[in-house]
Amino acid sequence: MLDLKLIRTNPEKVKEALNKRREKIDLEEVLLLDQKRRELLMDVGNLKETRNKVNEEIGRLRKEKVDVQEKILAMREVSNKIKELDNQIREVEERINKILLEMPNLPHESVPVGEDEKGNKEVRRWGKPREFDFIPSPHWDIGEALDILDFGRGAKVASARFTVLKGRGARLERALINFMLDLHTKEHNYQEIFPPFLVNAVTMTGTGQLPKFEGDLFKCENGLYLVPTAEVPLTNLHQQEILNEEDLPLYYTAYTACFRKEAGSYGQDVRGLIRQHQFNKVELVKICRPEDSYQELETLTQDAEEVLKRLELPYRVVVLCTGDMGFSSAKTYDIEVWLPAQGRFREISSCSNCEDFQARRAMIRYRSKDKERVNFVHTLNGSGLAVGRTLVAILENFQQKDGSIAIPDALRPYMGGIECIKGK
């Protein structure tokens, strides 16, 4: 959520930043409502001051045995007026809050300006795509040939875009989850969390999924929502809390299944594991002081990159332009892994600094060491990594001419020493 004070004091700056995001939002309504709210607060303040003075006078006159019935009746009218104005203030604040909840975050000054993904800028690459002496197959053909992916039965027991992993395919998925969690907890100093897979509307609102993106979520009859990412419960662990500065930064990692409606058509992504309604992900979340957040973004991105380096998967890092950024982000790096069957890089992780945008929505603050100031924290998140897409990258990059899949060295201890997956 944007700072209302920033909108009030520098509306042109906010409007310019929103325009860079291709967002046409009328700030005039917010400013008029804010002005009305402040006028109402002033009126209520004056009435309360008058009531307090007259109440003191009534107390004094009673001691002097003076009739004060007329003044009491007048103060009842004042109290009724205060209640009426308080209701008006509440209605105006609800309207302001509704508008603010629909506004995206402002892009950091270092973010390139662009309309869509064509405006993204490559930052670096790692690894060299493998040269095959045969035509590489797409992961869905590999998985079905090895009998480790079953798209038909996934659709039968659920619907389209659900998949059953079988045998060593299921074990490879589990191995990836354990490998990622071990790397992040043992070497990158994240605390492992196993959060609920269902969260309430307040939690979804805190990280920006509600109210704007409710159509993308799976909602249960009891009002709870299936998590679209572990970012949601991890960031909200500290909603409505005031942390101590000496306890920052906080690093959390978690495995969860993730659930997204993925409405619309995505061409060839309808096939395979790239866009599923349910998928596994290991998430990274940081909560820190504002002055540290952009350095924390760099290290968080490097933590996610390290997974791909250990798995020997070529990738590149791009910084997203203003027109391609997520709703809550002030700056985002996408990590894209090389998929040989598609002959291009595909997103496998998004690492974002949300600054105080989520912290304002979830009311996550910290108290300075001198105990004199309470400020909003900055929150960051990133995939470390999307497990299904990592499995896709392994199937395609490590496929052999005989149809088998070599297991990356880093995963073999998690696969019981298995060096390759072969057909029956």
Given as residue ranges, the uncertain stretches (5+ residues, pLDDT < 50) are: none
Largest sheet geometry: 8 strands, mixed
Q: Please state the overall shape, judged from the principal axes of the Cα atoms.
A: elongated
Order of helices and strands: HHHHEHEHEHEEHEHEEEHEEEHEEEHEE
Q: What is the percentage of strand-forming residues?
A: 15-25%
Domain tally: 2
Distance between the termini: 54 Å
Q: How many helices does DSSP assign?
A: 12
Task: Assign the structural class, choosing from mainly alpha, mainly beta, alpha/beta, alpha+beta, or little secondary structure.
Answer: alpha+beta
Side by side, the strands of the main sheet go: 1-10-11-12-15-9-8-4
Determine the fraction of residues in helical runs and give it as a percent range: 25-40%
State the CATH topology of the largest domain: BirA Bifunctional Protein, domain 2
The second-level CATH architecture of the largest domain is: 2-Layer Sandwich
Question: What integer is the average pLDDT?
Answer: 95
Number of strands: 17
**Cα Rg:** 27 Å
Top CATH class of the largest domain: Alpha Beta
CATH homologous superfamily (4th level) name of the largest domain: Bira Bifunctional Protein, Domain 2
